[in-house]
Amino acid sequence: MERSLKWRALLVVAAIVVALVYVFPSISPGLPTWWKKALPTDRLHLGLDLRGGMHLVLEVQSEKAVESAVERTVEELKFSLRKAKIPANSVSRIDGDKVEVQLARANDLDKLNKMLDDEFEYMVTEGTSEEAGRIIMILSMQAKEAARIKDLAVRQALETIRNRIDQFGVSEPDIRPQGDDRIVVQLPGVKDPKRAVALIGKTALLEFKLVDEAHSPQAALANGPPPGTEVLYQVKTDRETGRTTKTPFLLRKRTLMTGQYVTDARVAFNQFNEAYVSLNLDAKGARLFERITEAHVKKRLAIVLDGNVYSAPVIQERIGGGRAQISGSFSLEEAKDLAIVLRAGALPAPVKILEERTVGPSLGQDSISQGRNSIIVGLVLVLIFMVIYFRMAGVIADVALCLNMVLIVAALAAFKATLTLPGIAGIILTIGMSVDANVLIFERIREEIRLGKSPRASVDGGFGKALWTILDANVTTLIAALVLFQFGTGPVRGFAVTLSVGILASLFTAIFVSRLIFDYLLVQVKMKAVSV
Asked: pTM for this one?
């Protein structure tokens, strides 16, 4: 018995030491250097409702991703028709997600159908008609393929937004999908909400297009742009006066290159100490950019981001080495944010902000104070009640309960869980459940004493008879908590996390630690009676 007592005591001491190691960073304003090198430094993470920050609900407009995929299919169809020598009057996207193919000759219909079966199996024919010897075929994307693209767009948007926020420097962000096409973003401690929203919502579609210098932008604005061109604007804001100017550019619609080849983007400065964004391209992008600049020397190449012209420099010579740059009237922060979104990649589809809430730090501090006070008041009342009602056994229960609190905080810090206001409610509920287990044990011990059994036999009988009742009650609650964690969102998950951790900690302290203290008093101290 003594040997078993020693090993159990060592196990409890080890658990306490490990718990304190994880709790210390959360209660210490600063950690010594030697601690940072060898021991855990993670603090207890506070949720948005406690720390303050931003709450966003974003909707990924996934149908735009389908339209983009259809647009790419149009270009691939044009290439395949030329390769197969099938003359077509036009191939264009219509009604958002459909493709219209007009064949110049009716006898090419079989060739077209074979090509579609071989290369475009994800497209289905909605109808075919003949007009004046021409064949008009309407194609649409299979529902299964469209659903796959939408799902991929949401998952890519989630990853892209996460990358942007990580580079923005927000600590402990909470980013998760909600439903089929929504993303919930919680950013604790954000001090510049407008900048964060702009960074998250920027599509960051980077395109390189030629400027149409054969026609005037003013004439295009007055009479409509010539076929194959479009008017886009360069927007500049004077940071001193706040005055905004818009300069129209007439550009060729055809995109020569996109930002998909960008491997890195960094802020740099020119000789006038003006910020610009330096781009590094991958091997394929470097070769493509070199060919583009070689073929269009002395022409203007516009750099377009999300439909806005950032600059349109004249290509003086072939540019090799896989480097490019975006210059403009950038502030340092604007250049940094542009570099961030280009490094993280473009969103596969635009995102729409459905809900935006800002929680002030004062509200967060109020929540922390109220939650802390509720835990302290509940804990003190329970501690006093246990001592009054169960006397010496109540003191043992109080020791186990305090250890339970330490283990909960340590587990939350160790697993990098986020403590929320509902999570505090879970801790308070755990206090009650932990005491409930001790009450069951102590009542069984009282029954054994009334039967005239010795103190040691009474303790053995009390713990033995209460064990399965405690396990049944706690395991069923744990199952409910796990279900809440699996299917709940936000605050519900925070409640489920602390409740689950609290249940496991209370089982350890009520059954194992309390029993250890009783055994020590009976075996080592040789206590003659149990005060319960």
From this structure: 0.59
